[in-house]
From TrEMBL:
Residues 20-59 form the RING-type domain. One of its GO terms (molecular function) is zinc ion binding. It is found in: Nucleus. It comes from Podilymbus podiceps. One of its GO terms (cellular component) is PcG protein complex. Keywords: Metal-binding, Nucleus, Repressor, Transcription, Transcription regulation, Zinc, Zinc-finger. This is Polycomb group RING finger protein 3. PROSITE patterns: ZF_RING_1, ZF_RING_2. Residues 120-143 have a biased composition (Basic and acidic residues). The keyword Ribonucleoprotein does not apply. It comes from the Eukaryota. Pfam families: RAWUL, zf-C3HC4_2.
Length: 245
C-alpha cells in the first residue's frame, strides 16, 4: 500500500546535499558551477571567486580569468531547499525586508508581502502572472537571441585537431577546428557524423589520451582534466563505436 511505501528521512541525513560548503549554512540563492555542478550560496561563491578561479569543493579550474561567467542560478535546488527546511524561506524574506528598510530603500515586490509557497512561486512563473516575470522572460529571450546570433564567438575558444584512428572511417578534409570551450563531445560527434555522411552520430567514439570521452563533457572540462599541461591544439581521435559487453 502507499502507506507502507512511505519512508521518513531525517533532515540531518541530507544536510550535506543542501548546505553551502563555504558558510556551512542552508543554500540561499543557490548558484551552481557549470563545469562540475557543485552548488553554493550565491553571495558566498561570488565573494570566493573574487580572489580564486577554482571550485571550492573539487578545485577544478572554472575559468582562468572570468570564473563568474561560468556559474548560474539553480532555481530547482533552491526550491528543494525551501521545501525541505521549515521556515527557511520566510526567515530569508524577512531578513531581506529588514535590510531594505534599514537602508531606506523600497522593498522589491517579490519580497514585500508574505512569502508564497514553492508551488505558487513556480506557477506564477509558469503562467506569467506578474509584470516582473514578463519583463524577465522578455529580457531572457532577447539575451538568448543575442547569444544565438553571436554563435558563441565571444566564448573562450579551444583549438582542436580531430584525427581518425580507424581504417573503417575516413579522415576529415579539415581536421583543425576552433570552437567554443562550452561545446560538448556530443557536438563534435554530430559535426564528424555530418562531415562523413554517417547515418547516426551514435556510431562514433571520441577519445583523448586513448580514453573514451563522455558525450556531455565540455571541451573546457576535457582540456582541464586531460590536456592541462600540454600545448594546443587539443588532440582528439574518433573511431567507430565499440560495444563493450
Amino acid at each position: 500500500t502507499p502507506k507502507m511505501l512511505t519512508r521518513k528521512i531525517k533532515l540531518w541525513d541530507i544536510n550535506a546535499h543542501i548546505t553551502c560548503r563555504l558558510c556551512n549554512g542552508y543554500l540561499i540563492d543557490a548558484t551552481t558551477v557549470t563545469e562540475c555542478l557543485h552548488t553554493f550560496c550565491r553571495s558566498c561563491l561570488v565573494k570566493y571567486l573574487e580572489e580564486n578561479n577554482t571550485c571550492p569543493t573539487c578545485r577544478i579550474v572554472i575559468h582562468q580569468s572570468h570564473p563568474l561567467q561560468y556559474i548560474g542560478h539553480d532555481r530547482t535546488m533552491q526550491d528543494i531547499v525551501y521545501k525541505l527546511v521549515p521556515g527557511l524561506q520566510e526567515a530569508e524574506m524577512k531578513k531581506q525586508r529588514e535590510f531594505y528598510h534599514k537602508l531606506g530603500m523600497e522593498v522589491p515586490g517579490d519580497i514585500k508581502g508574505e512569502t508564497c509557497s514553492t508551488k505558487q512561486h513556480l506557477d506564477s512563473h509558469r503562467n506569467g502572472e506578474t509584470k516582473a516575470d514578463e519583463n524577465s522572460n522578455k529580457e531572457t529571450s532577447e539575451e538568448k537571441q543575442e547569444e544565438d546570433n553571436d554563435y558563441h564567438r565571444s566564448d573562450e575558444q579551444v583549438s582542436i585537431c580531430l584525427e581518425c584512428n580507424s581504417s573503417k572511417l575516413r579522415g576529415l578534409k579539415r581536421k583543425w577546428i576552433r570552437c567554443s570551450a562550452q561545446a560538448t563531445v556530443l557536438h563534435l560527434k554530430k559535426f564528424i557524423a555530418k562531415k562523413l555522411n554517417l547515418s547516426s552520430f551514435n556510431e562514433l567514439d571520441i577519445l583523448c589520451n586513448e580514453e573514451i570521452l563522455g558525450k556531455d563533457h565540455t571541451l573546457k572540462f576535457v582540456v582541464v582534466t586531460r590536456w592541462r599541461f600540454k600545448k594546443a591544439p587539443l588532440l582528439l581521435h574518433y573511431r567507430p563505436k565499440m560495444d563493450l559487453l
